[in-house]
Design a protein that fits this description.
It is a single chain. The protein is of the alpha/beta class. It has one domain: Rossmann fold (3-Layer(aba) Sandwich), CATH 3.40.50. Helices cover 44% and strands 17% of the residues. The protein is built from 8 helices and 9 strands. It has a 7-stranded parallel β-sheet with strand order 3-2-1-4-5-6-9, with helices on both faces. It has a two-stranded parallel ribbon with strand order 7-8. Helix 6 links the parallel strand 7 and strand 8. The protein is globular, with a radius of gyration of 17 Å.
Length: 253
């Protein structure tokens, strides 16, 4: 029960990596606020967690790129539990498109959700954590696309690289309040979305040095370490979880 009575917010958590992080936190005793833009998905995810874990999970649907949703998440944490210990800014969108024809509206939507949502969630959470003697911990979900170029993902990769710089910069801003900030950069990961491609597992197993893409649990295990008390002296860092792919970087077919 490493996270017993700790209070966590995780965005983009109706399925995939975010859901696995919520489930793992609740299994170790945390009280989790699970956010997803899809109301039925968020409710089902929270119910599944509550049915099988020792901790508790509240679902809060809403657009994680909206300040109104962000305020609601933090306010709900304080109203229900009186504190906020952990924030995982996991929500993000991927809008593919070649650079020469990428649309303005797609560019700004990626930046609004991936960067704006993460920035203002961290800001709002940090204002609360600043008032707590124990501070808190913030984790951004980046991507290997912030380290290696992927075709048709210029805007997305740009947004993910920026999150890693944000984690570094916030060391200066938030360390005096005992708030540590890090990022995790997943590589190819088996989720409900990626498994819609029947070739995904085969392709990425062939080009990943460890012989398989990550599971959502692989990513969640690293995330839980970074938001645990065992990592309180780690801040401003990014951990890549990709089975070694960025060391060799062969492109997928």
């Amino acid at each position: 029960m490493e996270f017993k009575n700790k209070v966590a917010i995780v965005t983009g958590a109706g399925q995939g990596i975010g859901f696995e992080i919520c489930k793992s936190l609740a299994n170790k005793g945390a009280r989790v606020l699970l956010n997803d833009i899809n109301l039925p998905l968020a409710e089902r995810a929270a119910q599944e967690i509550n049915d099988h874990n020792e901790g508790s999970c509240l679902s809060i649907a809403g657009d994680s790129g909206s300040l109104a949703t962000i305020n609601k998440l933090v306010e709900t944490a304080i109203e229900n539990f009186g504190r906020l210990d952990i924030v995982v800014a996991n929500a993000g969108i991927t809008l593919f498109g070649d650079f020469l024809n990428y649309r303005e509206e797609s560019f700004y939507e990626v930046m609004r959700v991936n960067l704006g949502g993460s920035f203002f969630l961290a800001q709002t959470a940090a204002r609360q954590m600043k008032s707590q003697p124990a501070g808190g911990t913030i984790l951004f979900t980046s991507s290997v696309t912030g380290h290696q170029a992927h075709k048709n993902l210029a805007a997305y990769g740009m947004s993910k690289a920026a999150l890693e710089m944000l984690a570094k910069n916030l060391v200066i801003e938030l360390s005096p309040y005992q708030i540590n900030v890090n990022a995790i950069a997943p590589g190819a990961t088996l989720t409900e979305r990626t498994l819609q491609d029947p070739e995904y597992n085969k392709i990425w197993s062939g080009i990943t040095p460890l012989g398989r893409p990550a599971s959502a649990k692989d990513i969640a295990d690293t995330a839980l370490f970074l938001v645990s008390d065992s990592a309180k002296h780690i801040t401003g860092q990014t951990i890549i979880v990709d089975g070694g792919w960025t060391s060799v970087s062969p492109p997928p077919d």
